[in-house]
Amino acid sequence: MKPxxxxxxxxxxxxxxxxxxxxxxxxxxxxxxxTDFKKQRAGKTIEPKVQCGKLxxxxxxxxxxxxxxxxxxxxxxTAGAAQHRTxxxxxxxxxxSVLAVAPNDVHSFDAISNLQMINCTYLTSYLFYDVREIxxxxxxxxxxxxNTIFSETSRSHIPEWHLDENxxxxxxxxxxxxxxxxxxxxxxxxxxxxxLEKLMLLLHRAYVHAAGTExxxxxxxxxxxxxxxxxxxxxxxxxxxxxxxxxxxxxxDYFARxxxxxxxxxxxxxxxxxxxxxxxxxxxxANNTATDVAHALGYYDSAHFCxxxxxxxxxxxxxxxxxxxxxxxxxxxxxxxx
Length: 338
Prior knowledge:
Layout: E1 11-13, E2 26-34, H1 37-41, E3 54-59, E4 64-69, E5 72-86, E6 89-93, E7 97-101, E8 107-122, H2 124-127, H3 131-135, H4 140-144, H5 146-149, E9 160-162, H6 165-182, H7 189-211, H8 220-234, H9 241-247, H10 252-263, H11 267-283, H12 290-296, H13 302-313, H14 317-324
Parallel strand pairs: 1-4, 2-3
Antiparallel strand pairs: 2-8, 4-8, 5-6, 5-7, 5-8, 7-9
Helix pairs in contact: 6-7, 8-11, 9-10, 11-13
């Protein structure tokens, strides 16, 4: 289906609205859209079927305007119903429906009827250190790390699928585990990360089962290129597009074309994009200065690094760190890349 380019976001949900930061890179909330006006007039409210994390309740709302997010979001519908609208059309959602929403994806909810959902939001800068592990599971990147690897222009729809009751019970268990761990005074960032990774793998398995396919495969030559780029970043080496194209037996132009078809970016643009993503991971630790990060990632100087960072993130490294970073030991250090 051809995307509706006239379907635009009326507002953007920022990361700070979800309280996402270095110490809170994953959040779980329960939302209830109470449309039983008769009960509301009688002073009664709908109780959540399942609650994970803090409860947010909205009354007298049957439509949620088109919007997008700065963050990634997984939404699991636990009760009620609605029409989920995206640029490719409108689809009915109900208990067991799952939505995997990436930054800049525009969507809305219409005909809301006592809708209840659990939302898991997360910063990929916290999770995403090495593309190779994620690409080892076909389709995982497209579902949960879309804008981190692929350009926002290379996905034409928001993935939607349905869980059976067994899969739903498994996923609810992991969501509750994340919420419970997040509420502890001695919260383990590693445990939260590993539980979220398990949740993603369970959801991915259900998606594959529902779709009857291993989802979108990345061509082997493109996967090789992605791995070479990761190694170049880790080893502080410049990425040579022409050299890699020759090693793969392609002309530079042909290689650039198939790479862009797969990722939505040129090889050079992707290389710079990934360096900035790695920088974001390092900047989550406020002990890492912009100069430290620039040096660790092999930039010519901090001014060049800051210029590229602002081009890809829309803000300076200092602003990013002030907004999301904290001084603690649960994030990668600049020495981790050596």
